[in-house]
């Protein structure tokens, strides 16, 4: 197949064949050596990735011959059945992901919503080459026992600099599932500590003995964590019990008997279903309260995603979340907001729950993905267990990744990327509305208005849609049954939106 490249012209949804600039084929790492090339002005964001290709290039089918050979070799030693695209990370740049066959796609999937400020970002490259990062990488500490002397400073100038309002402490972890599981443990220990009468009350002999038998002492009842149907909170043992997105994630794995409430699956367009949607949210809240009061294993915490992401991009109104906060407080149940996917800017606020105007903060907020590191924020000191080693593991996070997040935060702030994401999201949403009018069957239930670039729609032939997207130069992800979810990076600009929109229209027009 002849090389095809795409970029937008002045007409929104027209594409023109152009070649990617030849500079792009130079090794990215070499390009980054030139200071001049990444001199950036905050007001002129488009110059930030001046070596980015003007548009995608599709040279072969994907996977092409080189990728197929490499995948076959890989498959001999590593399960490749979930493989989406074999990637050449050295050649990937900014918003563009490259493969070994020379294909370069606009990436609005971004490693499952995890790349914050572009592939081979020069600022991160610089941070990675610095002594501090090298030290963090080659002298990885067991953080609970031997934290680096400047760990407080690293936290205060990084992870805690962007802490959600009202939450000034952090427990660092290694992945989203780990962040959630450790938050669950904090919730259980907090509740039991209350039941015992405070942090100073010693454990009884009966408690200690029964703990070693995986039992509770006689007379105690189990506790649970409540989650929502179609929610996703990870795949480790504890987190998997709260995950309710797809059976394939859960089959054969022992799970806790924990309650699940219905998430209010809203109907679109929202303005046509105001009463119906309000009724769905009210019913969901009533169910939450009913389960808190009556479930056979009472919950000590409720975990919720601001937008159910893996479950299909399901939104609820700020009023729903405000009521959830009030309800959990009323019943002395903790509220854990899982911002693993929604956090770090993509919704046009640093944390998605900032959209809710909560009467008081959540008790814990978990994070990972775009933060590159992970953990949970909390404010109440009682959420620190009463004794050391109750919440502990070897790494307890990773200083190198915490340093990377600090550099990411600096870039986000320097370039105003959260505000820019809000704006470009509005632009993208507006154009998608037009596409949805033109091809109503293909852009169903468009959602994410006012939520930055955290936008999705349903397509009845979603899986085919995503395969076709690659042939038109765009890497897009799906979620839930038939959602096409957009997860661009924070450096996604209007010019990238135009390329994406052009590709989306080509897909729609091809059916
Ligand atoms: C909302 C949410 N929570 C938790 C997780 C689990 O994170 P990880 O895959 O890093 O364990 C994910 C992953 O997609 C997620 O989207």
TrEMBL record:
Assigned keywords, A-Z: Aminotransferase, Pyridoxal phosphate, Transferase
Transmembrane feature ranges: none
Gene3D superfamilies on file: Aspartate Aminotransferase, domain 1 (3.90.1150.10), Type I PLP-dependent aspartate aminotransferase-like (Major domain) (3.40.640.10)
Substrates-to-products reaction catalysed: 4-aminobutanoate + 2-oxoglutarate = succinate semialdehyde + L-glutamate
GO biological process: gamma-aminobutyric acid catabolic process
The protein's Enzyme Commission number: 2.6.1.19
Major enzyme class: transferase
InterPro entries given in the database record: 4NH2But_aminotransferase_euk, Aminotrans_3, Aminotrans_3_PPA_site, PyrdxlP-dep_Trfase, PyrdxlP-dep_Trfase_major, PyrdxlP-dep_Trfase_small
Cofactor: pyridoxal 5'-phosphate
GO molecular function terms listed in the Swiss-Prot or TrEMBL record: 4-aminobutyrate:2-oxoglutarate transaminase activity; pyridoxal phosphate binding
Family classification: Belongs to the class-III pyridoxal-phosphate-dependent aminotransferase family.
NCBIfam families (alphabetical): GABAtrns_euk (TIGR00699)
Protein name as it appears in the record: 4-aminobutyrate aminotransferase
């Amino acid at each position: 197949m002849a090389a095809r490249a795409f970029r937008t012209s002045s007409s929104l949804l027209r594409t023109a064949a152009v070649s990617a600039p030849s500079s792009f084929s130079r090794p990215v790492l070499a390009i980054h050596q030139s200071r001049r090339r990444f001199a950036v002005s905050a007001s002129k964001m488009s110059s930030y990735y001046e070596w980015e290709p003007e548009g995608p290039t599709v040279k072969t089918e994907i996977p092409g011959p080189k990728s197929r050979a490499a995948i076959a070799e890989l498959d001999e030693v590593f399960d490749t059945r979930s493989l989406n695209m074999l990637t050449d990370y050295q050649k990937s740049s900014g918003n563009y992901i490259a493969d070994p066959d020379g294909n370069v796609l606009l990436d609005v999937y971004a490693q499952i919503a995890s790349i914050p400020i572009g592939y081979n970002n020069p600022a991160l490259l610089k941070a990675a080459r610095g002594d501090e990062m090298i030290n963090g990488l080659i002298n990885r500490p067991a953080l609970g026992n031997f934290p680096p002397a400047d760990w407080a400073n690293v936290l205060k100038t990084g992870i805690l600099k962007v802490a959600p309002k009202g939450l000034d402490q952090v427990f660092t972890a290694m992945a989203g599932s780990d962040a959630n599981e450790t938050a669950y443990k904090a919730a259980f220990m907090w509740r039991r500590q209350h039941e015992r009468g405070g942090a100073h009350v010693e454990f009884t002999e009966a408690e200690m003995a029964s703990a070693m038998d995986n039992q509770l002492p006689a007379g105690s009842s189990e506790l649970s964590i409540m989650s929502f149907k179609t929610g996703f909170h990870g795949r480790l043992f504890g987190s998997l019990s709260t995950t309710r997105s797809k059976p394939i994630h859960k089959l054969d794995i022992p799970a806790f008997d924990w309650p699940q409430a219905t998430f209010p699956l809203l109907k679109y367009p929202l303005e046509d279903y105001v009463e119906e949607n309000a009724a769905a949210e009210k019913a969901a809240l009533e169910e939450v309260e009913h389960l808190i009061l009556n479930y056979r294993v009472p919950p000590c915490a409720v975990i919720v995603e601001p937008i159910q992401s893996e479950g299909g991009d399901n939104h609820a109104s700020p009023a729903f979340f405000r009521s959830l906060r009030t309800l959990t407080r009323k019943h002395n149940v903790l509220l854990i907001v899982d911002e693993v996917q929604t956090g770090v800017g993509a919704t046009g606020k640093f944390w998605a729950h900032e959209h809710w105007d909560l009467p008081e903060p959540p008790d814990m907020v978990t994070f990972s993905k775009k933060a590159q590191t992970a953990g949970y924020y909390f404010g109440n000191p009682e959420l620190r267990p009463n004794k050391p080693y109750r919440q502990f593991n070897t790494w307890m996070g990773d200083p190198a990744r915490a340093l990377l997040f600090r550099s990411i935060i600096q870039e986000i702030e320097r370039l105003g990327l959260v505000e820019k994401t809000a704006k470009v999201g509005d632009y993208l949403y507006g154009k998608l509305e037009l596409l949805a009018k033109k091809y109503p069957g293909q852009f169903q239930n468009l959602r994410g208005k006012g939520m930055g670039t955290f936008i999705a729609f349903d397509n009845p032939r979603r899986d085919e849609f995503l395969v076709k997207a690659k042939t038109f130069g765009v890497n897009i992800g799906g979620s839930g049954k038939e959602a096409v979810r957009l997860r661009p990076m924070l450096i996604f600009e209007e010019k990238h939106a135009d390329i994406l929109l052009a590709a989306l229209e080509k897909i729609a027009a091809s059916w």
